Amino acid sequence: MGSFQIIPFSAFWLRSSVVSVLISLISDTWIIDPL
Fold first, then answer.
1. Is 60 exceeded by the pLDDT of residue 1?
2. What φ, ψ does residue 33 adopt, rounded to 5°?
3. pTM of the model
4. What domain of life does the native source organism fall in (predicted)?
5. CA 30 from centroid of its chain's CA atoms
6. What is the pLDDT of residue 19?
7. C-alpha angle 5/13/25, rounded to 5°?
8. How far is CA 10 from CA 3, 21, 26, 30, 32, in A?
C-alpha cells in the first residue's frame, strides 16, 4: 500500500516541476521576443 501512495505524489511533483520549467522558458522567450 505504501508504494501506491508514493507513486502519485512523485508523479505530481514531477508534473509540477515540468510545468515550472515550461513557464520559465515561456517567460524567457517573452522577454526576448514579446508579442
1. no
2. -135, 80
3. 0.51
4. Eukaryota
5. 18
6. 93
7. 165
8. 10, 16, 24, 30, 33
Give the C-alpha separation, 20 to 3, whole Å.
26
Total residue length of the chain:
35
d(C-alpha 35, C-alpha 33), whole Å = 7
pLDDT in tens, 12-31: 888 999 999 999 988 887 76
pLDDT at site 5: 64
State which amino acid sits at residue 14.
Answer: L
